[in-house]
Specification:
Layout lengths: L10 H16 L5 H15 L5 E8 L2 E9 L5 E3 L3 H9 L3 E3 L17 E9 L2 E10 L7 H15 L3
Antiparallel strand pairs: 1-2, 1-6, 2-3, 4-5, 5-6
């Protein structure tokens, strides 16, 4: 779901527009922190029903808080723990309908009920994850997953 004040097309056309905007924001910029900051701000502005959008960066077998939009968050997450750590360990997207039912969920924000985490890679190696939380159960669909993975792939081309 997209912010209807900004986007009024189909879900697919809205995601295509956001990816086009991401390309424009990242054009000519190679700084990782600057690009992740703009990417999290862009998604936070246009996705509805989310309460946290940001990145964790992979450093020394743990995830360290990176650029984000939302309430203060957990600073370090061990690989293999919680949704983010599991996505990093498996290097695969995790789309969780109910985070309270996920074994070992790390509750940085008690209001979060569903979550999607997408690995971020450079030259095939894990460098972090995109984490998006929602206060609603089952917020993220398989279609959201496909398009958010495309968003991350575009971001990867600029880092």
């Amino acid at each position: 779901m997209f912010n209807q004040k900004c986007y009024q097309g189909t879900l697919e056309s809205n995601y295509q527009l956001v990816i086009k905007q991401l390309k424009a924001l990242l054009s000519g910029e190679k700084d990782l922190i600057a690009n992740l900051s703009n990417a999290s701000a862009l998604l936070n502005q246009f996705l509805e029903d989310v309460n946290w959008v940001g990145f964790y960066l992979y450093k020394e077998n743990e995830l360290v808080l990176g650029p984000f939009q939302g309430l203060p968050a957990c600073v370090r997450i061990p690989v293999g723990r919680g949704v983010c750590g599991t996505a990093a360990e498996k290097v695969q997207t995790m789309r969780i309908e109910d985070v309270q039912a996920f074994p070992g969920h790390i509750a940085c924000d008690a209001a979060s009920r569903s979550e999607i985490v997408i690995p971020l890679k450079k030259n095939g190696e894990l460098i972090g994850v995109l984490d998006i939380d929602s206060p609603s159960l089952n917020r993220f669909t398989s279609e959201d997953q496909i398009h958010l993975e495309s968003f991350v792939q575009e971001l990867e081309r600029h880092i």
